[in-house]
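Action item from last week, closing it out:
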Amino acid sequence: MPLFKNLSAYDERSARLAGIALMVLSIFMFSFGDAMGKFLVGTYSVGQLLFLRACAALLLLAPLVWRQRHQFLNLERPGLQLFRVVLSTLEVAAFFLATVYLPLADVITYYLAGPIFVTAMSAVFLGEKVGWRRWTAILIGFCGVLIALRPSAQTVSLPALIALGGSLSFATLMLITRSLRKTPDIVMASSQFVGTFVLGAVLSAFHWVPPTSGSLVIFALAGCVSVTALFCVNRSLKLAPASVVVPYQYSMIVWAVIFGFVVFGDVPEIATIVGAAIIIGAGFYIYLRERDLGRGDVDVNPPA
């Protein structure tokens, strides 16, 4: 990544602009990868998607893993590391399983509630002090989730609950990642793909559809795009402060709507748009409060 290394030598303003550009690019790539995944699960099983996508990602990561193999020794809190991989694998599987039945924008909306869930769980399970302003924002964010979920006997579906469960797993994953800050980036990234590789291999054994050459290209592209997006996020955070680049992660809902409409013909319902707007507003307010309170080390880990 010589280009990214050179960018860090620029002046502060240029570095911030480069950080913003890389964050915007990473969110686009994550969204593009999600759209490719949704397209593939229309023909292939979720297990097959996880397996082949992880194969491509791990092949791309292999040279870096070998070069930095010493960083895999003596990892902090190995039990928690394993639990993080399990959660990461489950949330990715839940994400793509939900996209089989739901529009991409709906699934992304539930996952954008992750930072709200993180703040609530930090107070309940970790005993962190959360003031009335953030509790109000949490409640407003939950209202946004309910609006997007449209709860009633007729509208609450199993796919929606799977997406919501995936969002909660994603939030727990972010919470655990906070306590594993010393873990090298290459370990974090590669271990997540190892988890999806294992689960995908197991699930694929029960339902395998021989992929066409064109589909193999899309599988490989989905894995490579995910890895590249992760590198862009990491470099973005090294070039610019989190307070500058984090808000751009909410642009994911815009791309989800665009890809959903262009590729799948999905038109988001008013409830989804309103719910997403409330969730984004509440999440952004919580982020600003944590930054003002000196707790602005917010994790940037877009779903899937």
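Closing note: The chain is about 75% helix and 0% strand.
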